[in-house]
C-alpha cells in the first residue's frame, strides 16, 4: 500500500465529507463523543454499500487500510473539483 502525500489531511477531509454525506442521507447522526475509528469504519461501510468505493476483502479490512482507502476517496473528490 503506497502512502499518499498529505494522507492525514485527506483522512480529515474524508471524515468531514463522509459525516456530512451520512447525516444528509439520514444514515447516521454522529455525536462529538464518537471515536474517529468508529466514524471511519461507518463511513467506509456506508460508501461501500452505496457503491461509491470498491470494497476490500474482509480479511484486509483494518483501521490502516480504511484510512488509506478513504484518503484515496477524498483525494479523488478533490481532483474532480479541479
TrEMBL record:
<dbReference type="InterPro" id="IPR032036">
    <property type="entry name" value="DUF5062"/>
</dbReference>
<dbReference type="InterPro" id="IPR038316">
    <property type="entry name" value="DUF5062_sf"/>
</dbReference>
<dbReference type="Pfam" id="PF16691">
    <property type="entry name" value="DUF5062"/>
</dbReference>
<protein>
    <recommendedName>
        <fullName>DUF5062 domain-containing protein</fullName>
    </recommendedName>
</protein>
Amino acid at each position: 500500500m503506497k502512502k499518499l502525500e498529505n494522507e492525514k489531511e485527506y483522512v480529515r477531509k474524508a471524515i468531514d465529507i463522509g459525516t456530512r454525506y451520512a447525516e444528509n442521507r439520514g444514515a447516521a447522526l454522529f455525536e462529538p463523543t464518537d471515536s474517529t475509528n468508529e466514524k471511519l469504519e461507518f463511513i467506509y461501510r456506508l460508501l461501500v454499500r452505496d457503491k461509491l468505493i470498491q470494497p476490500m476483502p474482509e480479511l484486509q479490512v483494518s483501521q490502516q487500510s480504511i484510512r488509506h482507502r478513504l484518503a484515496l476517496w477524498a483525494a479523488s473528490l478533490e481532483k474532480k473539483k479541479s
